[in-house]
Specification:
Length: about 850
């Protein structure tokens, strides 16, 4: 996975956090005990995560699996953006730049803040407001609250001061879009609240994205953001703004408790913004709660799990706790693999064999919020409707829900009675889905770490009274490493009997029994924003000409594009987001990156695949890094720093460190095993950055290139047909190569009425001489795939004629790859490519870019 922290930064952070004794737990042993690992970079986990030990093996396994999940989705977007997290591993068309989606961002922030290195989560916070193509308002999110939640773990006033204008603008945008002054609340549709087919929208003619409503969930997010903005403003000395935000938050809470709370059903419910009508003519009146009007008027039901969201932010005043009496009742929300998202006897309760229904299916996104709210209720409210035993019971259910075929796994939603992910688990989309939380529930819920913006360590564990032990070790908190442990008789950890708190390895408090325990902490220490500014020069998610990659061979079902996408920990065989040299005839194979200019390099990392001894792809027997100082000069070996490990292992990076050298090109050569071949999930080249990052300009001579193809001028592109999703001809010669679904920078003929052939053409405006073309074929492994074949034609002035002597590499068209055609020089003012589709139903062809050269 991405290893931001290059040697000096690792050293700085390790020394910063570790002034004290040894860890309580044998961390390497805890990692090795688990047998599910795809990402076997245990060094990274030891450097970054808190460690857990409990008597509940389901919880232990899921806890470490969820840290692997965090690593699988951690993505280095660009040298300018830094790090972010994806939700889906395939970066679908509805995601923003580099694959992030706002909907689960709050859960992701709450998980990632517990990484020891705060740059990951700080980069992610800046990403949403400073990266072109990020979409912070496409879905509901609680961005300001997430920034404050991060600050509670990794305090840094300068970080908050820098981010505050963006957070204020973010709230202003939501207010402009969704605030209804007359109602005193924010509206949102369930679809954009992350809950697509829901019992409100299903009472309208638009069952997917209908029913603008005042929802308990979205209004809670906005309240949490207002409270966070008040706290940040106060911390930074802007007391006038803090007072204003507090006043707005107070008014919003009062309105929610008056309007969304139903005293008859004892629950927070959605309220319709508009008059609505369903397909049968049943009418709903505006400003009425669910089932107060419409087809099901007067129903005693209508409770959705989203009604518990207010407690996940400690929003409600005392007096509303009765809502929780429904949680553990099988007639309402409880299920063997629940909770369900709509109470069981609701007239619209429905379990569907298709995505994405929020009318009964158990969604981890919602389960996370409910468990967060339940922990807050148990810690901060007085009530007798639910107990600490209930919290553990639901948490255990949630932990064991993370399974498929006996192995740790999570997809989008599961059947609440069977635990099956079927119909909410789609290939190359849902695998190891990062749309929920778990780690934070363990740290702040089960283990009970209470977060405060002061130099105090307080815990209130929710563990079962029957447990004889548990430990949470080396949690980063306020610039310290804190640990907590319960050892009933002192025999487990040899630190004495009872409950103990530690800071930086030193015991600071003890109690003989389980319960709430507090102790003063040393003064908070801020981790600097950038101890050392280093960037990965090898990443290319923006499709610019440089950095540019070549390989000696690219195997089937793999693509060179995946080794520079910033996602390093996806070692999985399915889906194969990787480069391999499978079926290569070579004893050695190589991957080369050309930066287009000299770059300063200190660390090189090759993330090695290992599918097993009986699989075609495994680790190489030897690895060599080389560099060149220009575009065609000789290769020189990269010497490794003294004492560097030369061990070659799969599922982790092979690292070469150097005091510093400059290179334009880097090549890694892999010596294949006799009957197997090698592969990478990522290649990184780290070095210091002075000033702003700019990619090197493209070389001259590509006569297909038009820097402003939509602005007119030659060359011009046309096609026999283009899709209706933005895949237009002008996007295929703008110099940008994007093989992913997002952003849409391509031409495809998906939807073409011609099942056999389609064409793409360039008009140069005048006669040009050319002898080489490179077709970057778009392939989404679905409706657009590499063609069965293609051929190049030139315009004679009267007709199109096939260019003779075409030599193609590879000989069979390959998707998500460069396909090169060389031929005797041709002089013409137009070039056309004719694609013969592969003939699988509606599958058609496409290009993300075409290059045409004279040589």
């Amino acid at each position: 996975m991405p290893r931001l922290l290059l040697p000096l930064l690792l050293t700085l952070l390790t020394s910063f956090f570790s002034a004290g004794g040894a860890p309580i737990l044998n961390q390497r042993q805890l990692l090795e005990t688990q047998n599910f690992w795809d990402n076997r970079d245990f060094d990274w986990f030891e450097d970054n995560i808190p460690f857990l030990d409990t008597p509940d093996e389901e919880i232990n396994t899921t806890y470490y699996y969820r840290w692997e999940l965090v690593s699988k989705h951690l993505t280095y977007g660009s040298p300018t953006t830094g790090y972010l997290w994806t939700e889906f591993i395939n970066r679908p068309f509805w995601s923003g730049a580099y694959g992030a989606i706002a909907c689960p961002s709050g859960h992701q922030f709450y998980e990632a803040r517990w990484l020891r290195n705060p740059r990951y989560v700080r980069d992610y916070a800046r990403y949403w407001f400073r990266t072109p193509g990020a979409q912070p308002h496409r879905y509901s999110a609680w961005m300001a609250d997430s920034a404050w939640a991060t600050h509670l773990v990794h305090p840094n006033k300068n970080f908050l001061a820098d981010l505050l204008p963006d957070l204020r603008k973010n709230l202003d945008t939501w207010t402009s879009r969704s605030w209804v002054k007359e109602a005193g609340m924010f509206w949102q549709v369930g679809h954009d609240d992350g809950m697509e087919f829901n019992i409100a929208s299903r009472q309208t003619k638009n069952i997917l994205s209908g029913a603008p409503s005042y929802r308990p969930s979205f209004n809670s997010y906005m309240w949490a953001d207002l409270k966070a903005l008040a706290r940040i403003s106060h911390l930074l000395g802007d007391h006038g703004a803090a007072t204003s935000y507090e006043k707005q938050a107070g008014a919003l809470k009062d309105t929610m408790q008056k309007q969304l709370w139903d005293p008859r059903r004892k629950f927070f419910l959605a309220m319709f913004r508009d008059d609505e009508e369903d397909g049968e003519g049943n009418r709903i009146k505006k400003n009425t709660r669910i089932y107060e009007t419409g087809k099901f008027a007067g129903s005693p039901h209508g409770r959705e799990e989203a009604g518990y969201v207010p407690w996940s932010f400690n929003l409600p005043d005392p007096g509303y706790e009765e809502a929780w009496k429904f949680l553990m009742d099988p007639a309402y929300f409880f299920a063997e693999f629940g909770p369900v998202t709509v109470e069981r006897n609701d007239p619209l309760f429905l379990l569907k064999n298709s995505c994405c229904w929020w009318s009964g299916q158990s969604w981890p996104f919602a389960t996370t919020q409910t468990l967060k709210g339940l922990a807050n209720l148990l810690h901060n409210y007085s009530q007798d409707h639910v107990s600490r035993k209930d919290y553990y019971k639901l948490l255990h259910i949630y932990a064991r829900s993370h399974r498929k075929n006996g192995k740790p796994y999570i997809a989008e939603a599961l059947h609440p009675d069977t635990g099956s992910w079927d119909h909410h688990d789609f290939y190359n989309r849902s695998e190891h889905y990062f749309h929920s939380g778990f780690v934070d529930l363990i740290i702040t819920g089960l283990c009970g770490l209470i977060l405060e913006d002061k130099d105090t360590l307080t815990v209130d564990p929710l563990i079962p009274e029957s447990w004889d032990y548990f430990a949470l070790d080396e949690v980063p908190y306020r610039g310290h490493l804190v640990s907590l442990m319960w050892d009933r008789d002192g025999s487990r950890y040899d630190k004495g009997a009872g409950l103990h708190l530690f800071a930086n390895g030193k015991k600071i408090a003890s109690a003989p029994t389980l319960g709430k325990l507090s102790a003063p902490l040393p003064a908070a220490r801020e981790v600097a924003l950038h101890p050392r500014r280093e960037v990965n020069y090898a990443v290319n998610n923006d499709g610019t000409w440089f950095p540019r990659y070549r390989a000696s061979h690219t195997g089937p079902k793999s693509s060179l594009s995946f080794v520079h996408d910033g996602n390093t920990a996806w070692y999985d065989l399915h889906p194969p987001l990787r480069w391999t040299c499978e079926e290569s005839p070579n004893d050695k194979d190589w991957v080369e990156v050309d930066f287009g200019t000299l770059r300063p390099i200190t660390t090189l990392k090759a993330y090695l695949l290992d599918d097993g001894n009986d699989q075609p792809v495994t680790i190489p027997t030897a690895i060599q890094f080389e560099y060149s100082v220009n575009g065609d000069g000789p290769w020189q070996p990269v010497p490794s720093a003294p004492g560097a490990s030369r061990t070659i292992s799969g599922g982790k990076p092979f690292i070469v460190q150097h005091p510093g050298f400059k290179a334009q090109r880097i090549r890694v050569t892999l010596t294949n095993r006799a009957d197997q071949r090698s592969g990478l999930t990522e290649l990184e080249a780290w070095g210091p950055l002075e000033g702003s990052y700019l990619p090197a300009p493209a070389p001259a001579g590509n006569i297909a290139f038009n820097p402003d193809p939509k602005g007119g001028g030659f060359p011009k592109a046309s096609a026999s047909f283009h899709d209706r999703y933005g895949g237009v001809p002008s996007s295929a010669h703008d110099g940008i190569i994007i093989y992913r679904a997002t952003p849409t920078n391509r031409w495809t003929c998906y939807g073409s009425p011609d099942q056999n052939t389609d064409w793409f053409a360039l008009d140069f405006g005048e006669k040009k001489t050319f002898s080489r073309a490179i077709l970057h074929l778009y392939d989404d492994r679905g409706g657009v795939q590499a063609p069965k074949r293609y051929t190049l034609q030139h315009w004679t002035g009267q007709e199109w004629m096939e260019i003779p002597g075409q030599q193609k590499t590879p000989t069979k068209p390959k998707g998500s790859a460069a396909n090169t055609v060389i031929f005797p020089p041709v002089e013409s003012e137009k070039l056309r490519v004719v694609f013969t589709h592969i003939g699988k139903g509606h599958t058609r062809s496409g290009l993300t870019e075409i290059e045409v050269w004279d040589k």
